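Here is an idea for our session: we take a single protein and study its fold together. Start from the sequence, derive the backbone structure tokens from it, and show both lines together. Once you have written the record down, we can walk along the chain together:
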Amino acid sequence: MPRHALKKAKAPRSRKPRAKVSHALPLRPAGPSVAHGHSLHLGEVSLKKNQADKNQRLIMWLGISLLMVVIVGAWIMNLSQVIGPDTFSTKTEARQDAEDLKALRDDLQNAFSEVKDDLKQFEALTQTSPSATPSVSPTVLPNTLPN
């Protein structure tokens, strides 16, 4: 039997027309357009909602303004601590530099005096006495080892 005969034959689909939905919304609203910032005014309900929106915006802007004032106030208070009376003073910096240089000079002088003292001790240890005579070692002949 051929292969294609073994495959099950598919039943042809019958296409049924779809029913139209009668409760679908129209493509365009019947009233004025609400695009581009236009709004529908439906009497008193719209006015109450509009007033509530205005109140919410007012509360939002008051909150943002209050937060801004707090942040700027804290920044100004911190600025007075960061920029003190001696911040831009060159006298303070010059005085500090002079003290640092003096400390470095004193450390260098102390280090040199220690080196001089150690050098004097070394020279005292390495000096030979005038009465000392060098000792003569016996002559070693070539190809012989001393016992």
Notes: Residues 45-83 form one domain.
